[in-house]
């Protein structure tokens, strides 16, 4: 593989949420993070991050600003996507615990439970072993904020991490299916950017 | 996987500040009933603030304003699945303990309620639940962060529908942050003294050019343009108090303010969503509020 002359342009869905942290993480990992709020901006990127935020708000704005269908089509056509927390909810084919009428973009053959870990007082930090990271077996420091988890996965989905201890031990919190990646937690907040590096590599490999 | 792992730790600064990061670009709406909370959620609010009376009514009715009835807060927590915030009086650490026990997601130690302590704010490090506090300038913001606030909102003048104080406070914060960034390092010691804020925090703000926590705006926001202007002035999100449920068509106005907050830098969108909203809240000019009744002057 020849080194790309320009870094891949990776969009961050910028309707609501921790957009700036994802853009900074992507820039640090050798990509060019760009904001996506319009259909033409979806078409201009090589990959897309759905950030953390309030999934019900992002879902409503996706509908209002007519982004849902273009993003669904792009994912179906193979656009690499990474979602953290609310982003994981939005990438799930099936959702538990959503509000009435809440939709998802889909793309991951999983069932995700929204607010699965509880309310904010239950939000926590922990160390996780994550499979398939580009560099090494060191645990990932993970920050969970009113986080969802994955209830069940389809046959093509690879489980990358489960919670190690506590009442939610064994719950699935990181998954990958082809070029779609999702985590319950926020690497963009903890500063451990190996998952972002993994995603940038996925995008680069598609070249 | 999961063979060896450390404990799960709750209530850390990262988890508290991170929660506010997730609210960015969003609108947090004051609600006084479960029905209003549903309307807010349906309109795309990122969170609701549960309280007994909106600031406009507190202002009109007078008397001592306190934490809401736990039944009311429970009802709102039951009604919606988005985060629920609630207000405690400045310095009233037991109201905050009660709110934490009820499971609210954020406590607002708020000047909108009658202060319970005119000397000390709550020691917010002692809590698992995160706190948001109001500020009119950088020194006040940094003092609140020193006490453990995980999110700051500019105060504005709540319950007026007059955005002028919110503008002043956002501009003041922005100007003071910019000034710190322009100072040589050997002048930061005196800058910290003048701001009456810890030196380490002052250095951090000077280096990063921003507060170490998320900054929202509040107090007097009543229209989509108000929200968009605050975002252009550097707010990372918006609290709307009386502006929604004291207006002619709360559901439409709430939704319009949400859209304008996302597209705050696109006047075509702000223009489009501003149409056909009916009456905005009538409001009062901050100038006409006698100084002892100005809420922004509570807290120090």
**What is the radius of gyration of chain A computed over CA atoms, rounded to a whole number of angstroms?**
16 Å
Please provide the count of β strands of chain B. Answer: 9
Helix count, DSSP H or I runs of 4 or more residues of chain B: 13
Give the C-alpha Rg of chain B. 19 Å
Strand content of chain A: 25-35%
Major protein interface? A-B, 54 and 44 residues
What is the general shape of chain B?
Answer: globular
Overall pLDDT of chain A, averaged? 95
Layout: helices, strands, pairs:
The complex is a heterodimer of chains A (207) and B (300).
Chain A (H helix, E strand, L loop, with lengths): L8 E5 L5 H10 L3 E5 L2 H5 L3 E4 L4 H10 L3 H9 L4 E4 L1 H6 E5 L11 E6 L10 E5 L11 E5 L4 E5 L4 E5 L9 E6 L2 E4 L3 H4 L3 H13 L1
Parallel strand pairs in A: 1-2, 1-3, 3-4, 4-12, 5-6
Antiparallel strand pairs in A: 6-9, 7-8, 10-11, 11-12
Chain B lengths: L8 E2 L2 H11 L3 E5 L2 H10 L3 E4 L4 H7 L8 H10 L4 E6 L3 H10 L3 E5 L20 E5 L2 H9 L4 E4 L9 H19 L5 H8 L3 H10 L5 E3 L7 H9 L5 E3 L1 H4 L4 H13 L4 H7 L27
Helix pairs in contact in B: 2-4, 2-12, 7-9, 8-9, 10-12
Can you walk through the features of this model?
- The complex is a heterodimer of chains A (207) and B (300).
- Chain A is an alpha/beta fold and 207 residues long.
- Chain A starts with 8 loop residues before the first strand and ends with a helix.
- Chain A has one domain: Class I glutamine amidotransferase (GATase) domain (Rossmann fold, 3-Layer(aba) Sandwich).
- A 7-stranded mixed beta sheet of chain A has the order 2-1-3-4-12-11-10.
- The longest helix of chain A is centred in the C-terminal third of the chain and has 13 residues.
- In chain A, strand 1, helix 1 and strand 2 form a beta-alpha-beta unit.
- Chain A has 7 helices and 12 strands.
- The mean pLDDT of chain A is 95.
- Helix content of chain B is 42%, strand content 12%.
- An 8-stranded parallel beta sheet of chain B has the order 8-7-6-5-4-3-2-9, with helices on both faces.
- In chain B, helix 2 links the parallel strand 2 and strand 3.
- The longest helix of chain B is centred in the middle third of the chain and has 19 residues.
- Chain B starts with 8 loop residues before the first strand and ends in a 27-residue tail after the last helix.
- Classes of the chains: A alpha/beta (207), B alpha/beta (300).
- Chains A and B meet through helix 1, helix 3, strand 7 and strand 10 of A and strand 1, helix 1 and helix 12 of B.
- Strand 7 of chain A pairs antiparallel with strand 1 of chain B, so a sheet runs across the interface.
